[in-house]
Amino acid sequence: MLSKKEFLEIISQYNLENTGFTRNKYIEQLLPSLQRKEILILKGVRRCGKTTILKQLIQHLIKEKNIKKENIIYVNFDDFNFIPHLSLELLELMMSTRNKHEKQYIFLDEVQKIPNFESWLKTYYDREFDAKFVISGSNASLLAKDLGTLLTGRNLTHEIFPLSYSEFKTLKANAELKEYLEFGGFPEVVLAEDKEEKLNILRNYINDIINKDILQRRNIRDPKKLLTFAQYILNNPGIKLSINKLSKKTNLSKDSVAKYIEYMIDAYILIEVNYFSYSVKAKFHQTQSPKYYSLDNGFYRVNTTRNQVGNQTENSVAIKIRQEDNNISYWSEGESEVDFVINNKAINVTVAKEIPSRELKGLNDLKEKKKQIKKFFLINPEKEGKEEGIKFITIEEFLLIAV
């Protein structure tokens, strides 16, 4: 195990002042939580900006709240120096370095790398110990089981995503919608100027996520099969895909397909969109296959052989909705279909200059059948305004409004 001196030497090398682009939306949401006792939890896909946000919170404490640096501990468990030492002993070593006489602010980045950290965290939370814990992780299930049970009522959870289109425009001067639709919103990708550099970064990201957040965490016997499956499903955004169909298309067992989908959603690679119904039984009936989208358009870009504007546009709408609400669905009945249903809103997407009649038919049929849905949008490149209760807007306008 590391000595206290070695541990302090490692964490002293972190540059906590390099805070990068300020994610105002998240910072405004998170700052009030720093004043509460509950554990603050940030979850999101790797490289989306969680570490940057943690650093921004630290700088706020130092500069705005006059918290002394020695009362703030930041540890990144993705640091290669910690690979041989990822255990509860490392957390105990960290705690031995704290100032025991004043309130501590303890930031634990990628904490899911420590086995059984949940019980350790609960123990310290419940002790008469003046500390604020802020943790981050790259898995949606960070709270689903262990943390959800152990820390009920003891946590405040926020999801972090790659840049929204409005953030993209703020970060990059003269930014074009076409670039966002093609390469997505990962900050490092946005700032890269060269197309090949963007693609290389995205390839490294998807490989890193699959390796660290799926292969290393799960008992995957054949990594190549998972990689092939991931490429197939990311290459088909918005297509209804049942477990049976995916099993046949990828030559995998149904159990493997179900697990791979679960793992990819948990690692924030996929967005799952289920059938819309007020009946839970109907919503998840086996005849109603889900649709899947990439959590970032860059994931689609590096896994496709057909870089289509239609897929990019529809996928970006799924991302926009998912960033604001996880309760996302689609609706279909006979020849009628609506791409997205969210709360009391229905949305269809087309990139055709002449709007296909099926796009209007889907919205009008849903309007007749589901009176609870009050707002209807048709995203298209040409027509604007409102007719017969349907609002026509461009994709750029949609990406800039609140859903």
Write up what this structure looks like.
- It is a single chain.
- The protein has 403 residues and is of the alpha/beta class.
- It has 2 domains: 4-159, P-loop containing nucleotide triphosphate hydrolases (Rossmann fold), CATH 3.40.50; 165-400, no CATH class.
- The chain is built from 18 helices and 13 strands.
- The strands form 2 sheets. It has an 8-stranded mixed β-sheet, with helices on both faces.
- Helix 12 crosses helix 13.
- The N and C termini lie far apart (50 Å).
Identify the notable features of this structure and list them briefly:
alpha/beta; Rossmann fold; 5-stranded parallel β-sheet; 18 helices; 403 residues; globular; 8-stranded mixed β-sheet
Task: Summarize, please.
42% of the residues lie in helices and 17% in strands. It is globular. The chain has 403 residues and is an alpha/beta fold.
**Class by alpha and beta content:** alpha/beta
Number of strands: 13
State the oligomer.
single chain
Work out the helix count.
Answer: 18
Largest sheet: 8 strands, mixed
- State which percent range the strand residues make up: 15-25%
What layout of secondary structure does this protein have?
Blueprint: H1 4-11, H2 24-30, E1 39-43, H3 50-63, E2 72-76, H4 88-95, E3 104-109, H5 117-126, E4 131-137, H6 146-150, E5 155-159, H7 165-171, H8 177-183, H9 187-191, H10 195-215, H11 223-234, H12 243-250, H13 254-266, E6 270-275, H14 280-283, E7 291-294, H15 297-301, H16 309-324, E8 328-333, E9 336-342, E10 345-349, H17 357-369, E11 375-379, E12 385-387, E13 390-393, H18 395-400
Parallel strand pairs: 1-4, 1-5, 2-3, 3-4, 6-8, 10-11, 11-13
Antiparallel strand pairs: 6-7, 8-9, 9-10, 12-13
Helix pairs in contact: 12-13
